[in-house]
Structure formats: structure tokens, C-alpha cells
Amino acid sequence: MFKETEFSLILDRVTSNLGDGVHETRIPRLAVIRASSPTERLHTVYEPSVCFVAQGAKRSIAGDRILEYRAGQYLAVSLDLPAIGQVTEASAESPYLCFRLTLDPVLLSGLILEAGLKAPPSHIDQGLGLTTSLATPDMIDAAARMARLLETPDAIPVLAPLVERELLYRLLTADHGALLHRIATGESHTAQIGRAVKWIKDNFREPLRIEAVAAKANMSPSAFHQHFKDITALSPLQYQKQLRLQEARRLILANLADAASAGFAVGYGSPSQFSREYARLFGLPPIRDAARLRSTMTADHAGARQAAQA
């Protein structure tokens, strides 16, 4: 069975020639991440996934909740969630190394049925849509073997699906397996909020009418608001606002729009309101924030900044 040090050595080997950043691999849904120095705080949207840290440490912030995790731990995310990621422990000699597997709800639900796994008690289906936990030796073993397949690409089509199923089974039957059950269970509160989250993501430029979005989750407006806040650590309006502002920031940084045009493009009718809310989230008004980011996005740091997303 692989040990944690062997897991980090494998990820170090497979990422050493790739450099810093988030690297998609030949294994479907698997990415490997490397950062050779701590990163700044980066606003992003986490997808349903599990992220095993093999070396270094990371901080994730969702709303007012802060999660710290390091080598030997994993982060599990059950729905698309605006968050802030920051690599907090990394160096050239000992880089941050992470293994991220995006979760497939169909694969999870099929595995639950095949293995006859019982749904967790209803009282467990609550709480924030991301959590951290210690990785068991069996999880590290499966994750390390999956990563090592990257060194033998011809074996990936046959062996990767088998190892992925094993890893998901280990996760489903662990102490925090309830979070993965939520992804596969269409009637859980998390799944209901997930449907509303998808609608907000697809329509974030439109005015948000709570009654209409709550109906998509099959909840009353008051229950929807409470469950949404419990699971995402944000109100529905705050969630929409973060999506809008992150997209506006992307447009400005990519020189696809000036500040006023970016604000209108993401649904703001008032330039002053857009600038005010942008500065509240990112710390500076749009133009000054973009200038600061461009000045720090050198070739040496761009990949390390990207690694804060995973």
C-alpha cells in the first residue's frame, strides 16, 4: 500500500515537467496541481470534486467559513460554490501538490446502487456544501495508483475506471460519505439547492426573483433561503453577485470590456453600484484591481496563482 510520501513523490514526478498550475490529464475528470510558492487569494467557483493534498497546505473560504487543510487531508465539494482559494504552504523545494477528481453524479449513483449503500440519515443532509477530512490509507493508496497511471498512458483506458470506482467507494463509505451521497441523491436538500444553483449560474445576468428560484428547488421561499445559506454559506443574492463580479473581472482582465461595459454585461444597471460592489469583494475598484493583477501575473507566478483554484 502506498504511503503519503510515495503519493507526493508520484505527483512531483508527473507535474515536474508541467510546471506550476492546474493541469488536466489523460484520465477523464482528473487534474493535477502544482505551486512552487504561496499564492494570493483567488476568487473562483469550485465544482463538485474531491481534492487530495499530497504536499503543502491550502485555505478555502466560502462566505464567512474558513477551511484549512494540508497533506494527508482532502477537500470534498458537493455543488458549484463561489469560494476563495489560497495556497498557504509551498516552496520550490517542497511544492504544493494536489490531485483533483471532478465528481460524476451518474457514476456515483450507479456505484451506490451496485454496492447497496444506504443513504445517510436525513439529519446528516445539512451543512456547508464543502468539507475537509483526513484521508484514509485506502484512499491515499487508490489516489496514488490512479496518479501513477499517468506514467503508463497505455494502461489508462483499462485501469483508470477501476481505480476511480475504488476511490469513490472508499469516499462513499467514509465518515464524510454523506456529502458524496448528496450529489447522487436527487431528493436531498443539497440536490434541490443544486438545481437552483444551476439556474442561477445559467441566468446570473437576469434579476433574481426568490420565489421563482425557490420553486425550482421545490421549496418555500423561507425554507429555500435558509437551506441555500446553510449549504453555500451565501444568500442567493450574494451567490449571484459573486458570479456577476467574477465574470466582470474576467472580462476586464482579458481586455474584452472596460469597467462600465463589464458591469452592464453582467447585469448591473448602475456603474457606481457595480464599482462599489466590485471594490467590496476584490478590495479595489475595477481598473485599479485589473492593473494590480496584471502587474503580478508574470510568467513565474501565473501558474502558481492558478493553482489556488483547486
From TrEMBL:
<dbReference type="InterPro" id="IPR018060">
    <property type="entry name" value="HTH_AraC"/>
</dbReference>
<protein>
    <submittedName>
        <fullName>AraC family transcriptional regulator</fullName>
    </submittedName>
</protein>
<dbReference type="Pfam" id="PF12833">
    <property type="entry name" value="HTH_18"/>
</dbReference>
<keyword id="KW-0804">Transcription</keyword>
<feature type="domain" description="HTH araC/xylS-type">
    <location>
        <begin position="194"/>
        <end position="292"/>
    </location>
</feature>
<dbReference type="Pfam" id="PF06719">
    <property type="entry name" value="AraC_N"/>
</dbReference>
<dbReference type="InterPro" id="IPR009057">
    <property type="entry name" value="Homeodomain-like_sf"/>
</dbReference>
<dbReference type="InterPro" id="IPR009594">
    <property type="entry name" value="Tscrpt_reg_HTH_AraC_N"/>
</dbReference>
<keyword id="KW-0805">Transcription regulation</keyword>
